[in-house]
From TrEMBL:
InterPro entries: ZIP, Zn/Fe_permease_fun/pln. Residues 1-24 form the signal peptide. Belongs to the ZIP transporter (TC 2.A.5) family. It comes from the Eukaryota. PANTHER family: ZINC TRANSPORTER 9, ZINC/IRON TRANSPORTER. The chain crosses the membrane at residues 42-63, 84-107, 160-180, 192-214, 220-242, 254-272, 292-311. It holds the Pfam family Zip. It is found in: Cell membrane; Membrane. This is Zinc transporter 9-like.
Length: 312
């Protein structure tokens, strides 16, 4: 079963890479109207993806964490005396905030240092009486252009968001893969496989939208797609390896799964609410267009509804 899932993941990765290679060979330039339409379409896709990720965290992962850490099998420990699930989810959200801000600040400082170094090189290389001032003026205009600087800052944010989001999804993927691999009951494996398929499909849509928005190079896109594709099969292999000694109702298994689920829920909640929804809905393009606001909200509700229906 693990080999089949690896083969399926490889096929999906190969198919997903074909459009990227086709785009790389295209030399046509899009018009301004097409760029605007693409921007609106991407906003709708991100709103839908955020709804999927939000529902995954609130409807699927967090209830599982409460169930595991609230199990009667943990009656002897402190797990029934304090809401550890909420605490772990909160701490995971705070940790994601810390990673998000530190990574964004680091890459932003590195981005700002590059134009400054370029200006210094231009000023020291031109010793002419008029050339130096002219070069300095051109360089200053290039650095102070709002579109160039703002675009770079926004791109950094999108890339950090995509990478942190993948971290949260990977944690969840390993957990659900381990559940499938460790289970030895066909009646349990069948619904788990169905849930895994739909979870990975919708989470892949959400992560894929963020990766496209981040405009990574092809190598980075393929690397992130590979990690996303292989984490669940790796989790299945781990589950198969420990299946002989694994008891899903043992205190150790319940605590490990509950803690990891709560952490994944906290990460995805933060990413959906702060990095995707807040940033997208507060975008001036959305705020200045009433029709787009309505469509974005509908897209968000559709994403949450589809993912919530899987809980049935």
């Amino acid at each position: 079963m693990a080999a089949g899932m690896k083969l399926a993941a490889f096929c999906l990765l190969a198919v997903a890479s074909l459009p990227l290679l086709a785009v790389a060979d295209c030399e046509c330039e899009a018009s301004a109207d097409e760029d605007s339409d693409k921007g609106r379409a991407l906003t709708l896709k991100i709103a839908f993806a955020a709804g999927v990720i939000l529902a995954t965290a609130f409807v699927h992962i967090l209830p599982d964490a409460f169930e595991k850490l609230g199990s009667p099998c943990l009656a002897d420990g402190p797990w029934h005396k304090f809401p550890f699930t909420g605490l772990i989810a909160m701490l995971a959200a705070i940790a994601t905030l810390v990673v998000d801000t530190i990574a964004t600040g680091y890459f932003q400082r590195a981005h700002n240092a590059k134009p400054a170094a370029a200006i210094g090189d231009v000023e020291t290389s031109d010793h002419g009486p008029h050339g130096g001032g002219h070069a300095h003026g051109v360089a200053s205009m290039m650095v102070s252009t709002p579109n160039a600087d703002g675009g770079g800052t926004q791109l950094i944010r999108h890339r950090v968001i995509a990478q942190v989001l993948e971290l949260g999804i990977i944690v969840h993927s390993v957990i659900i893969g381990m559940s499938v691999g460790a289970s030895e009951s066909p009646s349990t494996i069948r619904p788990l496989l169905a849930a895994l398929t739909f979870h990975q499909f919708f989470e892949g849509i959400g992560l894929g939208g963020c990766i496209v928005q981040a405009k990574f190079r092809l190598k980075s896109v393929l690397t992130m797609a590979l990690f996303f594709s292989l984490t669940t099969p790796v989790g299945v292999l781990i589950g198969i390896g420990i299946s002989s000694a694994y008891d899903e109702n043992s205190p150790r298994a319940l605590i490990i799964e509950g803690v990891l689920n709560a952490a994944a829920a906290g990460i995805l909640n933060y990413m959906a609410l702060v990095d995707l929804l807040a940033e997208g809905f507060m975008n001036p393009r959305v705020q200045n267009n009433g029709r787009l606001q309505v469509i974005v909200n509908v897209s968000l509700l559709v994403g949450t509804a589809l993912m919530s229906m899987l809980a049935i």
